[in-house]
Design goal:
It comes from Sula dactylatra (Masked booby). This protein is an all-alpha fold. It has two domains: 147 residues, Leucine-rich Repeat Variant, CATH 1.25.10; 134 residues, no CATH class. 66% of the residues lie in helices and 0% in strands. It has 19 helices and no strands. Helix 13 runs antiparallel to helix 14. The protein starts with a helix and ends with a helix.
Length: 305
Protein backbone atom coordinates (compact mmCIF):
# COMPACT_ATOMS: atom_id res chain seq x y z
CA UNK A 1 0.00 0.00 0.00
CA UNK A 2 2.93 2.34 0.69
CA UNK A 3 4.41 1.61 -2.74
CA UNK A 4 1.04 2.18 -4.39
CA UNK A 5 0.93 5.56 -2.67
CA UNK A 6 4.51 6.71 -3.16
CA UNK A 7 6.21 4.70 -5.93
CA UNK A 8 3.66 5.00 -8.75
CA UNK A 9 6.02 5.67 -11.71
CA UNK A 10 8.26 2.73 -10.74
CA UNK A 11 5.41 0.20 -10.39
CA UNK A 12 5.14 -0.91 -14.06
CA UNK A 13 8.76 -2.11 -14.02
CA UNK A 14 8.36 -3.71 -10.57
CA UNK A 15 5.24 -5.55 -11.74
CA UNK A 16 6.99 -6.69 -14.93
CA UNK A 17 9.92 -8.08 -12.93
CA UNK A 18 7.68 -9.81 -10.39
CA UNK A 19 5.37 -11.60 -12.86
CA UNK A 20 7.84 -14.49 -13.52
CA UNK A 21 8.03 -15.26 -9.77
CA UNK A 22 4.30 -16.08 -9.77
CA UNK A 23 5.36 -19.35 -11.43
CA UNK A 24 8.42 -19.87 -9.22
CA UNK A 25 9.16 -23.37 -7.95
CA UNK A 26 9.57 -21.74 -4.52
CA UNK A 27 6.24 -21.51 -2.72
CA UNK A 28 7.39 -18.57 -0.58
CA UNK A 29 8.07 -16.48 -3.70
CA UNK A 30 4.65 -17.26 -5.18
CA UNK A 31 2.97 -16.34 -1.86
CA UNK A 32 4.88 -13.06 -1.52
CA UNK A 33 4.25 -11.94 -5.10
CA UNK A 34 0.56 -12.88 -5.01
CA UNK A 35 0.19 -11.00 -1.70
CA UNK A 36 1.88 -7.93 -3.21
CA UNK A 37 -0.34 -8.01 -6.32
CA UNK A 38 -3.44 -8.58 -4.20
CA UNK A 39 -2.69 -5.47 -2.15
CA UNK A 40 -1.85 -3.49 -5.29
CA UNK A 41 -5.32 -4.24 -6.65
CA UNK A 42 -6.89 -2.41 -3.70
CA UNK A 43 -5.41 0.85 -5.02
CA UNK A 44 -6.60 2.82 -8.04
CA UNK A 45 -2.97 3.28 -9.06
CA UNK A 46 -3.16 0.07 -11.13
CA UNK A 47 -5.92 1.71 -13.15
CA UNK A 48 -4.03 4.99 -13.56
CA UNK A 49 -0.93 3.13 -14.79
CA UNK A 50 -2.95 0.80 -17.07
CA UNK A 51 -1.80 -2.20 -15.02
CA UNK A 52 -5.19 -3.47 -13.89
CA UNK A 53 -5.75 -6.10 -16.62
CA UNK A 54 -2.17 -7.36 -16.40
CA UNK A 55 -2.20 -7.75 -12.61
CA UNK A 56 -5.76 -9.12 -12.55
CA UNK A 57 -5.05 -11.75 -15.23
CA UNK A 58 -1.88 -12.91 -13.49
CA UNK A 59 -3.63 -13.10 -10.12
CA UNK A 60 -6.57 -14.99 -11.67
CA UNK A 61 -4.15 -17.57 -13.06
CA UNK A 62 -2.99 -18.34 -9.49
CA UNK A 63 -6.35 -19.91 -8.63
CA UNK A 64 -5.05 -23.30 -9.67
CA UNK A 65 -1.84 -23.00 -7.62
CA UNK A 66 -0.98 -26.05 -5.54
CA UNK A 67 -0.50 -23.81 -2.47
CA UNK A 68 -3.75 -23.04 -0.64
CA UNK A 69 -2.43 -19.70 0.65
CA UNK A 70 -1.67 -18.53 -2.90
CA UNK A 71 -5.21 -19.46 -4.01
CA UNK A 72 -6.66 -17.60 -1.03
CA UNK A 73 -4.55 -14.47 -1.70
CA UNK A 74 -5.54 -14.55 -5.37
CA UNK A 75 -9.22 -14.35 -4.42
CA UNK A 76 -8.47 -11.57 -1.93
CA UNK A 77 -6.80 -9.60 -4.72
CA UNK A 78 -9.73 -10.05 -7.09
CA UNK A 79 -12.11 -8.92 -4.35
CA UNK A 80 -9.90 -5.87 -3.71
CA UNK A 81 -10.76 -4.57 -7.19
CA UNK A 82 -14.10 -3.52 -5.66
CA UNK A 83 -12.26 -0.90 -3.58
CA UNK A 84 -9.34 -0.13 -5.93
CA UNK A 85 -11.16 0.10 -9.28
CA UNK A 86 -14.92 -0.28 -8.59
CA UNK A 87 -15.81 1.15 -12.01
CA UNK A 88 -13.95 -1.77 -13.67
CA UNK A 89 -15.80 -4.51 -11.76
CA UNK A 90 -18.79 -4.24 -14.11
CA UNK A 91 -16.60 -4.82 -17.16
CA UNK A 92 -14.97 -7.93 -15.68
CA UNK A 93 -17.99 -9.03 -13.62
CA UNK A 94 -18.61 -12.45 -15.17
CA UNK A 95 -14.94 -13.41 -14.87
CA UNK A 96 -14.67 -12.21 -11.25
CA UNK A 97 -17.88 -13.99 -10.22
CA UNK A 98 -16.70 -17.23 -11.83
CA UNK A 99 -13.47 -16.97 -9.81
CA UNK A 100 -15.41 -16.58 -6.55
CA UNK A 101 -17.69 -19.54 -7.32
CA UNK A 102 -14.64 -21.68 -8.16
CA UNK A 103 -13.10 -20.62 -4.85
CA UNK A 104 -16.17 -21.76 -2.93
CA UNK A 105 -15.94 -25.11 -4.70
CA UNK A 106 -12.21 -25.55 -3.93
CA UNK A 107 -11.73 -29.29 -3.28
CA UNK A 108 -8.38 -29.01 -1.48
CA UNK A 109 -9.45 -26.64 1.30
CA UNK A 110 -9.80 -28.64 4.56
CA UNK A 111 -10.28 -25.57 6.78
CA UNK A 112 -12.42 -23.67 4.22
CA UNK A 113 -10.02 -20.71 4.16
CA UNK A 114 -10.32 -20.36 0.38
CA UNK A 115 -14.12 -20.56 0.61
CA UNK A 116 -14.10 -17.90 3.35
CA UNK A 117 -12.04 -15.56 1.20
CA UNK A 118 -14.32 -16.23 -1.78
CA UNK A 119 -17.45 -15.37 0.23
CA UNK A 120 -15.92 -12.19 1.72
CA UNK A 121 -14.67 -11.02 -1.68
CA UNK A 122 -17.94 -11.83 -3.42
CA UNK A 123 -19.84 -9.69 -0.89
CA UNK A 124 -17.54 -6.78 -1.77
CA UNK A 125 -18.01 -7.26 -5.53
CA UNK A 126 -21.81 -7.58 -5.52
CA UNK A 127 -22.40 -3.83 -5.25
CA UNK A 128 -20.63 -3.29 -8.56
CA UNK A 129 -21.53 -6.24 -10.84
CA UNK A 130 -24.19 -6.32 -13.54
CA UNK A 131 -27.38 -8.01 -12.42
CA UNK A 132 -27.39 -10.31 -15.48
CA UNK A 133 -23.93 -11.64 -14.51
CA UNK A 134 -25.04 -12.71 -11.03
CA UNK A 135 -28.48 -14.03 -12.02
CA UNK A 136 -27.15 -17.19 -13.69
CA UNK A 137 -25.08 -18.08 -10.61
CA UNK A 138 -27.50 -16.96 -7.90
CA UNK A 139 -29.04 -20.31 -7.10
CA UNK A 140 -25.73 -22.20 -7.17
CA UNK A 141 -24.12 -19.72 -4.76
CA UNK A 142 -27.12 -19.75 -2.37
CA UNK A 143 -27.10 -23.57 -2.21
CA UNK A 144 -23.32 -23.74 -1.90
CA UNK A 145 -23.06 -21.36 1.07
CA UNK A 146 -26.02 -22.75 3.02
CA UNK A 147 -23.98 -25.45 4.94
CA UNK A 148 -21.64 -22.74 6.26
CA UNK A 149 -24.48 -21.14 8.28
CA UNK A 150 -23.88 -23.80 10.96
CA UNK A 151 -20.09 -24.02 10.68
CA UNK A 152 -18.06 -24.40 13.87
CA UNK A 153 -15.94 -21.47 12.60
CA UNK A 154 -17.69 -18.21 13.44
CA UNK A 155 -15.97 -16.41 10.51
CA UNK A 156 -17.57 -18.84 8.09
CA UNK A 157 -20.98 -18.44 9.72
CA UNK A 158 -20.75 -14.67 9.57
CA UNK A 159 -19.41 -14.40 6.01
CA UNK A 160 -21.86 -16.90 4.51
CA UNK A 161 -24.86 -15.26 6.22
CA UNK A 162 -23.80 -11.75 5.15
CA UNK A 163 -23.31 -13.00 1.59
CA UNK A 164 -26.76 -14.60 1.64
CA UNK A 165 -28.25 -11.28 2.71
CA UNK A 166 -26.42 -9.50 -0.10
CA UNK A 167 -27.65 -12.05 -2.66
CA UNK A 168 -31.29 -11.19 -1.91
CA UNK A 169 -30.79 -7.88 -3.75
CA UNK A 170 -30.73 -9.91 -6.96
CA UNK A 171 -33.65 -12.20 -6.19
CA UNK A 172 -36.38 -10.28 -8.03
CA UNK A 173 -35.80 -11.95 -11.38
CA UNK A 174 -35.75 -15.40 -9.74
CA UNK A 175 -38.32 -14.60 -7.09
CA UNK A 176 -39.91 -18.04 -6.72
CA UNK A 177 -36.64 -19.94 -6.95
CA UNK A 178 -34.86 -17.70 -4.45
CA UNK A 179 -37.89 -17.58 -2.16
CA UNK A 180 -37.37 -21.33 -1.72
CA UNK A 181 -33.78 -20.65 -0.62
CA UNK A 182 -35.00 -18.06 1.88
CA UNK A 183 -37.43 -20.59 3.34
CA UNK A 184 -34.63 -23.17 3.52
CA UNK A 185 -32.47 -20.78 5.53
CA UNK A 186 -35.15 -19.01 7.57
CA UNK A 187 -35.16 -21.29 10.64
CA UNK A 188 -31.36 -21.26 10.79
CA UNK A 189 -31.16 -17.46 10.56
CA UNK A 190 -33.81 -17.00 13.26
CA UNK A 191 -32.14 -19.51 15.61
CA UNK A 192 -28.70 -17.99 15.10
CA UNK A 193 -30.04 -14.72 16.49
CA UNK A 194 -29.08 -16.64 19.68
CA UNK A 195 -25.57 -17.38 18.37
CA UNK A 196 -22.79 -17.09 20.98
CA UNK A 197 -20.82 -14.75 18.68
CA UNK A 198 -22.14 -11.16 18.44
CA UNK A 199 -20.78 -10.75 14.88
CA UNK A 200 -22.87 -13.74 13.74
CA UNK A 201 -25.97 -12.27 15.43
CA UNK A 202 -25.37 -8.99 13.55
CA UNK A 203 -25.01 -10.93 10.29
CA UNK A 204 -28.33 -12.72 10.93
CA UNK A 205 -30.10 -9.44 11.66
CA UNK A 206 -28.76 -8.01 8.39
CA UNK A 207 -29.71 -11.10 6.34
CA UNK A 208 -33.24 -11.23 7.78
CA UNK A 209 -33.77 -7.51 7.12
CA UNK A 210 -32.68 -8.13 3.52
CA UNK A 211 -34.93 -11.21 3.16
CA UNK A 212 -38.03 -9.50 4.55
CA UNK A 213 -39.22 -7.76 1.35
CA UNK A 214 -39.00 -11.03 -0.63
CA UNK A 215 -41.22 -12.97 1.78
CA UNK A 216 -44.58 -11.62 0.66
CA UNK A 217 -45.70 -10.90 4.23
CA UNK A 218 -45.79 -7.23 5.18
CA UNK A 219 -46.09 -7.92 8.92
CA UNK A 220 -42.98 -10.12 8.90
CA UNK A 221 -41.04 -7.63 6.79
CA UNK A 222 -41.92 -4.80 9.21
CA UNK A 223 -40.89 -6.92 12.19
CA UNK A 224 -37.50 -7.69 10.67
CA UNK A 225 -36.89 -4.03 9.77
CA UNK A 226 -38.03 -2.62 13.12
CA UNK A 227 -36.78 -5.21 15.61
CA UNK A 228 -33.56 -6.37 13.96
CA UNK A 229 -31.70 -3.10 13.78
CA UNK A 230 -28.05 -3.45 14.74
CA UNK A 231 -28.28 -0.90 17.53
CA UNK A 232 -31.41 -2.40 19.09
CA UNK A 233 -31.44 -5.15 21.71
CA UNK A 234 -33.87 -7.98 21.04
CA UNK A 235 -36.37 -9.61 23.39
CA UNK A 236 -36.00 -12.95 21.67
CA UNK A 237 -39.01 -14.81 23.11
CA UNK A 238 -41.47 -12.01 22.38
CA UNK A 239 -39.99 -11.50 18.92
CA UNK A 240 -40.25 -15.20 18.03
CA UNK A 241 -43.83 -15.37 19.30
CA UNK A 242 -44.80 -12.60 16.86
CA UNK A 243 -42.71 -14.05 14.01
CA UNK A 244 -44.46 -17.42 14.38
CA UNK A 245 -47.85 -15.71 14.39
CA UNK A 246 -47.07 -14.09 11.01
CA UNK A 247 -45.55 -17.30 9.63
CA UNK A 248 -48.63 -19.35 10.48
CA UNK A 249 -50.97 -16.69 9.11
CA UNK A 250 -49.08 -16.43 5.81
CA UNK A 251 -47.60 -19.93 5.35
CA UNK A 252 -49.58 -22.44 7.45
CA UNK A 253 -48.70 -25.20 4.97
CA UNK A 254 -45.03 -24.72 6.00
CA UNK A 255 -45.63 -25.93 9.57
CA UNK A 256 -44.22 -29.43 9.24
CA UNK A 257 -41.20 -28.26 7.28
CA UNK A 258 -40.40 -25.58 9.87
CA UNK A 259 -40.78 -28.10 12.71
CA UNK A 260 -38.52 -30.67 11.05
CA UNK A 261 -35.79 -28.07 10.53
CA UNK A 262 -36.03 -27.02 14.19
CA UNK A 263 -35.75 -30.65 15.34
CA UNK A 264 -32.31 -30.78 13.76
CA UNK A 265 -31.19 -28.04 16.20
CA UNK A 266 -32.25 -29.99 19.28
CA UNK A 267 -28.73 -31.46 19.09
CA UNK A 268 -26.93 -28.19 18.37
CA UNK A 269 -23.54 -27.66 20.01
CA UNK A 270 -24.72 -24.25 21.23
CA UNK A 271 -26.94 -24.33 24.32
CA UNK A 272 -28.85 -21.12 23.50
CA UNK A 273 -29.72 -22.46 20.06
CA UNK A 274 -30.74 -25.83 21.54
CA UNK A 275 -33.08 -23.90 23.85
CA UNK A 276 -34.42 -21.66 21.06
CA UNK A 277 -35.47 -24.55 18.78
CA UNK A 278 -38.18 -26.10 21.03
CA UNK A 279 -39.44 -22.61 21.86
CA UNK A 280 -39.71 -21.89 18.12
CA UNK A 281 -41.75 -25.09 17.63
CA UNK A 282 -43.96 -24.23 20.61
CA UNK A 283 -44.87 -20.83 19.15
CA UNK A 284 -45.52 -22.35 15.69
CA UNK A 285 -47.96 -24.90 17.14
CA UNK A 286 -49.55 -22.22 19.33
CA UNK A 287 -50.41 -20.02 16.35
CA UNK A 288 -51.37 -22.58 13.68
CA UNK A 289 -55.10 -23.01 13.04
CA UNK A 290 -56.85 -26.31 13.65
CA UNK A 291 -57.09 -27.24 9.96
CA UNK A 292 -53.30 -27.39 9.64
CA UNK A 293 -52.60 -29.16 12.95
CA UNK A 294 -52.83 -32.51 11.17
CA UNK A 295 -49.43 -31.79 9.58
CA UNK A 296 -47.70 -32.33 12.92
CA UNK A 297 -46.31 -35.80 13.54
CA UNK A 298 -46.68 -35.87 17.34
CA UNK A 299 -44.62 -39.06 17.84
CA UNK A 300 -41.77 -37.52 15.86
CA UNK A 301 -42.08 -34.26 17.78
CA UNK A 302 -42.23 -35.85 21.23
CA UNK A 303 -39.21 -38.05 20.55
CA UNK A 304 -37.35 -34.89 19.47
CA UNK A 305 -35.56 -36.47 16.50
Amino acid sequence: SAMAQHAGPRLPLIVKNLIPTLSSVFESQRITTTAFFAELLSSNVVNDLILLETVMDNVTARQKDTCMLVRMLALRGLGNIASGSPEKVRKHGAKLLASMVNGMDDKDDPHNLVALEAMSSLSKLLDHVEERDIQSMLLHIAIRIRPFFDSEQSDLRRSSIVLFGNLTKFSEGNCEVFFEQILNGLVTLLLHLQDPKPEVVRACKFALRMCGPSMGCEGLCDMFLNHLREDRSLHYGEFMNNVCKHLMQSYPEMLNRLILTNLFYFKSNWADIRAAAPMFIGFLVLHVDEDHCQQVDLDHLISGE
